[in-house]
Amino acid sequence: MMLPSRHYESEHTKFMRELLQRRPDLIEKQREGRAIWWDKRPKELAEERVMDTSRVAQSPYVYDADS
Question: Going by C-beta distance under 8 Å and a sequence separation of 6 or more, which residues neighbour residue 49?
Fold first, then answer.
């Protein structure tokens, strides 16, 4: 089996490198998006935990007519 050349660069790596050269603002936009959807402050997590504990239990089979 032949190993790739030390200077080999995949198509994906080339694409990402060129994209970031043309649009350097994408890195900051990615950080902003991550902050909105993934990075949560402890206060937000505590509020979410309270909402989870106050949730009403659902019956195992929602479409059961006898329940």
Answer: none
CB 67 within 8 A of CB 60: no
What DSSP string runs through 9-37? --HHHHHHHHHHHH-THHHHHHHHHHHHH
Entry pTM = 0.47
Residue 27 binned pLDDT confidence (cut-offs 50, 70, 90): very high
d(CA 64, CA 67): 6
Residue found by looking up tokens 């060129």 in the block: 18
The Cα–Cα gap between 26 and 30 comes to 6
pLDDT for residue 67 is more than 60: no
Query: Cα angle vertex 36, ends 31, 41, to 5°?
Result: 100
